[in-house]
């Protein structure tokens, strides 16, 4: 058996790849020893991880639903601002953020499922960044509307 390692012996940067002589003979010049992610066979992950991924997806969708409901409530139930269309200026970005969170949560759930089935590390979640920026924008809009309305 031949092994492939990166870095000097004893280095923390090592791989566990082992190749027999017949496998090394099958390599053509310029061929990679690493397999492509699309070539990685998929296997059924542990059900606990699949359920945890699904619970996270559902939690993000509850957040999306809350944002959409709050946006609708803002456009319909808030008292009028001193700015024409102020309720819509505040409510529509919340509805759009809710839709974005729902869409992004599905994409992240799908990416996590794919990574678990291929035995790869889970991708980083874009959800905290999406939600933080979106809520920050809505907060700035609310502050501007409150300042304009106080005159």
What does this entry look like structurally?
Helices cover 61% and strands 4% of the residues. With 151 residues, it is mainly α. It has a domain at 45-148. A two-stranded antiparallel sheet has the order 1-2. α2 (47-77) runs antiparallel to α3 (86-118) and α3 packs antiparallel against α4 (127-149).
Summary keywords:
single chain; 151 residues; mainly alpha; two-stranded antiparallel sheet; 4 helices; disordered N terminus
Give a short overview:
The chain is mainly α and 151 residues long.
Draw up the topology in text:
Layout: E1 2-4, E2 17-19, H1 21-25, H2 47-77, H3 86-118, H4 127-149
Antiparallel strand pairs: 1-2
Structural class designation: mainly alpha
Query: From N to C, what is the helix and strand string?
Result: EEHHHH
How many strand segments? 2
The proportion of strand residues reads: under 5%
Give the N-terminus to C-terminus distance in angstroms: 80 Å
**Percent helix among the residues?**
55-70%
Strand order, largest beta sheet = 1-2
- Ranges where pLDDT stays below 50 over 5 or more residues in a row are 1-7, 13-17, 21-35
Mean pLDDT: 82
General form? elongated
Query: Main β-sheet, in a few words?
Result: 2 strands, antiparallel
Q: Please tell me how large the radius of gyration is.
A: 25 Å
Q: Tally the helices: what do you get?
A: 4
């Amino acid at each position: 058996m031949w092994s492939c390692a990166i870095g000097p012996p004893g280095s923390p940067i090592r791989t566990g790849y082992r190749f027999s002589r017949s496998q090394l003979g099958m390599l053509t010049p310029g061929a990679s020893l690493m397999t492509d992610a699309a070539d990685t066979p998929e296997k059924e992950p542990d059900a606990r991880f699949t359920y945890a991924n699904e619970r996270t997806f559902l939690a993000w969708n509850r957040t999306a639903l809350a944002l959409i409901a709050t946006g609708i409530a803002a456009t319909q139930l808030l008292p009028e601002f001193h700015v024409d269309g102020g309720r819509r200026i505040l409510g529509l970005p919340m509805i759009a953020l809710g839709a974005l969170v729902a869409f992004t949560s599905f994409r992240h759930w799908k990416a996590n499922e794919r990574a678990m089935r291929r035995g790869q590390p889970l991708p980083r979640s874009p959800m905290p960044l999406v939600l933080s920026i979106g809520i920050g924008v809505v907060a700035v809009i609310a502050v501007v509307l409150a300042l304009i309305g106080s005159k």
